[in-house]
């Protein structure tokens, strides 16, 4: 099995005037292809900070990080943006869909950025909406969708360019229990179909569904 995530001694410090916040104090983590990992721990322990490093949204202060075989800890912003587009799918607690676009157009956006042509793009977006059970909502804008439906559109968008790694930060945080359970089932199906997943969550049901749970405390991984 090849390592999709190879993180070594990741440190992330934030400078706040005189004070330094030690958000990550040396985190090492390996995640292999087709794994499904949940990261849990108390508020402020560094979960989102770590996920943002894995998603190359942010860069470590020190440490080494390879994602899908590429070193990403020192990428420039432009290269990081390109890397994210090609290799990473990211799902957020608050969906972050484009409000002016329809469900299909939201899913098409990363495909267009990757240079896929019009008709192929449309077909792929419809396939993805079909996969998450939303084919019939393709013309709806986010405000015309339920929370669970918006999150499923966000997942379809995250999968658009066939990412090596799907990351999700509290994906059930804004959803009721029933809709959350649907989301958990969708993540399990995605993983069964071959997607490597790392999810940050307070949701015990979601953590239980993952195949491995990583516990964090005060900027470190326990155990
Ligand atoms: N941009 C920032 N500037 C300064 N400090 C930050 C920044 N982002 C996070 N921190 C600090 O780093 C620590 C870790 O934050 P992080 O958001 O990773 O926590 P978390 O585990 O995701 O918490 P939660 O479960 O509440 O989302 C916290 O003490 C936080 O205050
Ligand atoms: Mg967080």
Structure notes:
With 223 residues, the chain is α/β, with parallel strands linked by helices. The protein has helices spanning 47-54, 77-87, 103-113, 118-131, 147-159, 177-192, 204-209; strands at residues 3-16, 19-32, 36-40, 62-67, 70-71, 88-91, 165-169, 197-200, 212-217, 220-221. The chain has a single domain, classed as P-loop containing nucleotide triphosphate hydrolases (Rossmann fold, 3-Layer(aba) Sandwich), CATH 3.40.50.300. The protein contains seven helices and ten strands. The strands form two sheets. Strands 6-7-8-3-9-10 form a six-stranded mixed β-sheet, sandwiched between helices. A four-stranded antiparallel β-sheet has the order 2-1-4-5, with helices on one face. The longest helix is centred in the last third of the chain and has 16 residues, at 177-192. The two termini are 23 Å apart. Bound molecules: adenosine-5'-triphosphate and magnesium ion.
Secondary-structure map with pairings?
Layout: E1 3-16, E2 19-32, E3 36-40, H1 47-54, E4 62-67, E5 70-71, H2 77-87, E6 88-91, H3 103-113, H4 118-131, H5 147-159, E7 165-169, H6 177-192, E8 197-200, H7 204-209, E9 212-217, E10 220-221
Helix pairs in contact: 3-4, 3-5, 4-5, 5-6
The structure holds adenosine-5'-triphosphate (ATP) and magnesium ion.
Q: How many alpha or pi helices?
A: 7
First and last CA, distance: 23 Å
For the secondary structure, the number of strands is: 10
Q: What is the CATH C level class, in words?
A: Alpha Beta
If strands are numbered along the chain, what order do they take across the biggest sheet? Answer: 6-7-8-3-9-10
CATH topology: Rossmann fold
Q: What's the architecture, going by CATH?
A: 3-Layer(aba) Sandwich
| Small-molecule components bound | adenosine-5'-triphosphate, magnesium ion
Classified in CATH, the superfamily is P-loop containing nucleotide triphosphate hydrolases
Question: Mean of residue pLDDT?
Answer: 96
